Amino acid sequence: MLLVAEAANPEWASVPLVGWSLASAIAAQTDAHIVTQVRNREAFLRAGLVEGEDFTAINTEHIERPLWQAAKRLGLGEKGGWTLLAAMSSFLYPYFERQVWKKFGDRIRAREFDMVHRITPVMPTAAGVLAERCQAAGIPFMLGPINGGVPWPKGFADLRTKEREWLSMVRGFYRLNPTWRRMLKASNVILCGSGFALAGLPERYRAKAILMPENGIDPSRFTRVAVQDGSLPLRACFIGRLVPYKAAALAIEAAIPFLASGQMTFDIIGDGPEREALEAQVAAAGLGQVVTFHGWLDHRQVQDVAVRNQILLFPSIREFGGGVVLEAMALGLVPVVVNYAGPGELVDSDVGLKVPIADAKEITVSLRGLLGGLISDPSVLAKKSEAGRLRIKRNFLWSAKATRIIEIASSVAARETSP
User: Fold this and answer.
1) What is the pLDDT of residues 138-176, one digit of tens each?
2) How far is 252 from 262, CA to CA, in rounded Å?
3) Quick one: pLDDT at residue 84?
4) Secondary structure of residue 368 in the 3-state scheme
5) DSSP string of 154-180?
6) What is the DSSP string of 318-339?
């Protein structure tokens, strides 16, 4: 397999960690070569991979660096504007695929590879030439998991403005890109990270799509387990960037009566532009003794703080992946989420609790009722915690996901069956 993972880095978070985790898990189980962008080269070498043998780094810095510097000056990704950042990435990405073809095209045509699998970028808007060129060479192409395109829910226009997400209103124009349509047509398999991503495919291509959430778990990074002893106060934590759409403010507002009465504590792990406002919200309610802001923590420290709690209180209203939900489940925490997009698809009544998507006031009321129920009977958490950990072991370890992808690739490459 030739694994194309433009974003793949074991030392970073989010999509680069997904790219690294899946590519390295596949390479551990089959003969594979990883292609990535040169910014990941040093991290690959520190991880023990051999350049030229295990991976190839493609240098596209001469066209990428000026745009990324401009994005940094605009505060994209730190102060919102994620759709604009994704649009910039989609604009840059086709050049990367052309360089991959320039490097590996002759070897693909010579059938040195049985399957080419593009793992990242995850965003479905990034289109390149590899799929159709592999098709012309007679080599199967797997795309994904792709994910994204989650619409802003109604009632949160103020948060969309704070996130500088005006471009999300015209995001669908990428469907007019002929390269995007040709990529989907030429792909033999399309892995979709969510129901939204699947629904975003033209109907004629859904028959070759497989639903597979893009996030997974490396058990070596999650070595501790929360104690679910049914005791009070109810111990909750939030993990993530403190940005408007993650809605930590809703979590605090919903919990105020229980925090004030001593029936609940709240650890907030993460940092971001909303931290000052959240600290002011806590101070105004007089809750400084029971709400702790930990800021950014090293991964080991995150799990050390997290396992002191019983639930992950994570009411994000626009989360296309929700990897933190899986991480919480791996640690034995019970996730409490809003039933929308990624978290809503990952959590069911066996492993967690969720409230309906609605406006901010209704979500706050629903969360408050749910928290009150848990305080009345925290014993329900133990069973959900155990079920969540079991589900992670069965379905979401990177090794299990790699095994499934190799099975799919082998079947398609052998022309035995369609996915």
Assistant:
1) 999 999 999 987 887 888 777 767 666 554 554 566 677
2) 14
3) 54
4) helix
5) TT-HHHHHHTT-GGGGGGGGGGG-HHH
6) S-SS-HHHHHHHHTTPEEEEEE
The gap from C-alpha 32 to its chain's centroid, in whole angstroms, comes to 24
With 50 as the cut, is the pLDDT of residue 81 above it?
Answer: no
What is the signed CA dihedral for 176, 179, 181, 182, rounded to 10 degrees?
Answer: 160
Q: Which of 1-15, 53-67, 72-86, 281-295 has the lowest mean pLDDT?
A: 72-86
Cβ-in-10-Å burial (0-12, 13-18, 19+) of 50 comes to exposed
Structural domains in the chain plus CATH codes: 2-216+397-413 (3.40.50.2000), 219-395 (3.40.50.2000)
Give Cα separations from 41 to 3, 12, 15, 45, 412 (angstroms).
15, 13, 16, 6, 31
Mean pLDDT of the chain: 91
* 29 pLDDT higher than 60: yes
Q: Which long-range contacts (CB under 8 A, 24 or more apart) does 406-414 make?
A: 406/1, 406/26, 406/29, 406/30, 408/142, 408/189, 408/210, 409/1, 409/114, 409/115, 409/117, 409/140, 409/142, 409/189, 410/114, 412/115, 412/140, 412/142, 412/188, 412/189, 413/114, 413/115, 413/140
- Residue 323 CB: number of other CB atoms within 10 A? 23
Residue pair 268/292 in contact (Cβ under 8 Å)? The answer is yes
Using an 8 Å Cβ cutoff, are 337 and 327 in contact?
no
| Cα distance between residue 79 and residue 274, in whole Å | 9
Distance CA 246, CA 123 (A): 19
* Nearest residue to 337 (alpha-carbon basis) of 297, 3, 51, 328: 328
Question: For strand 334-339 and strand 141-146, is the pairing parallel, antiparallel, or unpaired?
Answer: unpaired
What mean pLDDT is predicted for residues 359-386?
97
Q: In sequence order, what are the residues at sequence separation of 6 or more whose Cβ sits closer than 8 angstroms to the Cβ of residue 348? A: none
Structure token digits, residue 252? 């605090």
CB 111 within 8 A of CB 138: yes
Contacts of 216 (CB under 8 A, 6+ apart): 18, 21, 22, 25, 326, 396, 397, 398, 400, 401
CA distances from 413 to 202, 416, 419 (A): 24, 8, 11
**What DSSP state is assigned to residue 151?**
P
Identify the residue whose tokens are 């009150």: 372
Query: Strands 189-192, 264-269: parallel, antiparallel or unpaired by DSSP?
Result: unpaired
At 75 the three-state DSSP class reads: coil
DSSP symbol at 230: -
- Calpha distance 164→380 (Å, rounded): 40
